[in-house]
Automatic annotation (TrEMBL):
Pfam family, one: UPF0556
Protein name: MYDGF factor
Gene Ontology cellular component terms for the protein in this record: extracellular space
GO biological process, any: positive regulation of endothelial cell proliferation
Classification of source organism: Eukaryota, Metazoa, Chordata, Craniata, Vertebrata
Length: 132
């Protein structure tokens, strides 16, 4: 668990697992601190590394001016950002495709398109497998 803090400053939170890591960098405004969670995992065959960042209460009421999630040691295969995370009867609501961009190792807001709402990020990345 970590606190997502408003105030407009850039903050970072990281977790790692073996050779892989995930870092969430953001700045947010309004409201008070929110408790968020980050989970990292590796598939049984070590082929995939996953990183999820979300607010367990579902919706974040903070106004995100920027965000970036970066994986270390793996290349992103799939990533999705959501303005609302599932909680109770609510389901995940994805951001529009134009609001964020997915690179080889990062998922980040797209300047001028992102509508400042973020409650969840999901990343699945492929690990460099050693060919036998």
């Amino acid at each position: 668990e970590f606190d997502v803090r408003p105030g407009g400053e850039v903050h970072s939170f990281s977790r790692s697992l073996g050779d892989y890591g995930c870092t969430f960098t953001y700045s947010a405004q309004g409201g008070t601190n929110e408790q968020w969670q980050m989970n990292v995992g590796v598939s049984e065959d070590n082929g995939l590394f996953s990183c999820s960042i979300w607010r367990p209460q579902g919706k974040s009421y903070l106004f995100f001016t920027q965000f970036k999630a970066e994986v270390k040691g793996a290349k992103i295969e799939y990533a999705m950002a959501y303005s609302q995370a599932a909680a109770g009867a609510q389901s995940d609501i994805p951001l529009k495709q134009e609001e964020f961009e997915v690179g080889e190792t990062t998922v980040s807001h797209r300047e001028g398109k992102f509508r400042f709402e973020l409650s969840k990020l999901m990343i699945v990345a492929k690990t460099p497998r050693d060919e036998l």
